[in-house]
Amino acid sequence: MKDELALSCPVPAGRYEQVLMAHGGGGRLMHQLLERVFLSAFSNPALDTGHDAAVLDVGSSRIAFTTDSYVVRPLFFPGGTIGTLAVNGTVNDLAMAGARPLGLSAGFIIEEGLPIETLERVVASMQGAAKEAGVAIVTGDTKVVDRGKGDGIFINTAGVGLVEHGLRIAPAAVQAGDAVILSGDVGRHGMAIMAVREGLQFESAIESDCAPLSGPVLDLIGAGVEVHCLRDLTRGGLASALNEIAAGAGVGIAIDERQVPVREDVRGACEILGFDPLYVANEGRFVVFVAGRDRGRAVEVLRRHASCEAAVTIGHVAAGDPGLVTLRSLIGSTRILDMLSGEQLPRIC
After folding, report:
1. How far apart are alpha carbons 328 and 63 in whole angstroms?
2. What end-to-end distance do the CA atoms of the chain give, in Å?
3. Is the pTM of this model over 0.85?
């Protein structure tokens, strides 16, 4: 009976005896696993901020430091590769701390039998992404594992960035009255991956939104916008990111679904596959919490960038209901927008 429950129900991580794919899905199970196993063991002031990157004082300077691993399947997809994900993902984690990226490391775990031509294509795509983001890959490592033990190639990247301003950008800085701004349409990366996996064809190919975000973020800060928090919308999508911030800040967040841009082909793919676009992963989208008086200027600055042309205010931070995210739906009703419980899209980043 215990095994049956472990295979079918999204119960707390503490009740599972083995790690499931759902523990990597970006939702409630993943957060329970992080809190039970990792955060309890490694707890320290930098880690406990719950940020995308740790911000550390080094002499008179502040640096941001982050790392991430990439296991996407397939390795090549419309709009990107595992290599572009590995560069942009880490650049974006630095950007979410308000940092200018300085340098990246790249670690490769390569399965015996991988064609050299495939490896060269991945590396070339990484170099192109790094050039676009204005950052260099300055150190790295390679390991080769037995045939059948590595699924082609896995990549880990780490990054260091410089924090050049005095803003405190973190979930704890979010306050009632803040505006919630979304940088563009949601759901494209997850649906681009799933369309390839499922062999779905549309009138036009759905391409991943994979893109570097440091430029738009640094322009926001440079324009004097009072930025309180940033979060990129990767695993778990918009809904999970808002829940993470609401819980971390102890505030309520209210958003309007009518203001959330979703392309029609993405919406159609989600309906076919049974997904909610608010929970689908993105690799070039973020939300920014700014002082309410700055929302118009923030949207104007973001729309100057091609990756943020559809930036829009989608909601605000409310004074009551700490930790709760509510959504005014397309038909005008209001409901709770909860965090994703288990696994929706595995191996997408």
Report:
1. 39
2. 34
3. yes
The crossing angle, in degrees rounded to 10, of helices 214-222 and 82-95 is: 20
Helix (H, G, I), strand (E, B) or coil at 275: coil
**Angle separating helix axes 82-95 and 116-133, nearest 10 degrees:** 30
CA 276, 282, 285, 291 torsion: positive or negative?
A: positive
Tokens of 61: 């300077």
Let me know: does 103 contact 160? Beta carbons within 8 Å: yes
List all residues 6 or more positions away from 238 whose beta carbon is below 8 Å from its beta carbon: 182, 186, 260, 278, 279, 282, 285, 287
Between the CA atoms of 31, 32, 36 and 39, what dihedral angle is there, to the nearest 10 degrees?
A: 20
- What strand order describes the sheet that includes 61-70? 54-58, 61-70, 153-163, 100-111, 136-145
CA torsion through residues 137, 143, 144, 145, sign = negative
Q: For residue 349, give the DSSP letter.
A: -
**Are 92 and 232 within 8 A, CB to CB?**
yes
State both tokens at 16: 């599972």
Total Cβ atoms within 10 A of residue 320 = 8
Question: Each residue's pLDDT tens digit in the chain (349 positions)?
Answer: 344 444 444 455 557 889 998 888 778 889 899 999 999 999 999 999 888 899 999 999 999 999 999 999 999 999 999 999 999 999 999 999 999 999 999 999 999 999 999 999 999 999 999 999 999 999 999 999 999 999 999 999 999 999 999 999 999 999 999 999 999 999 999 999 998 888 877 777 899 999 999 999 999 999 999 999 999 999 999 999 999 999 999 999 999 999 999 999 999 999 988 999 999 999 999 999 999 999 999 999 999 999 999 999 999 999 888 999 999 998 999 999 998 876 677 888 8
Burial class (CB in 10 A: 0-12, 13-18, 19+), 324: middle
DSSP 8-state assignment for residue 283:
S
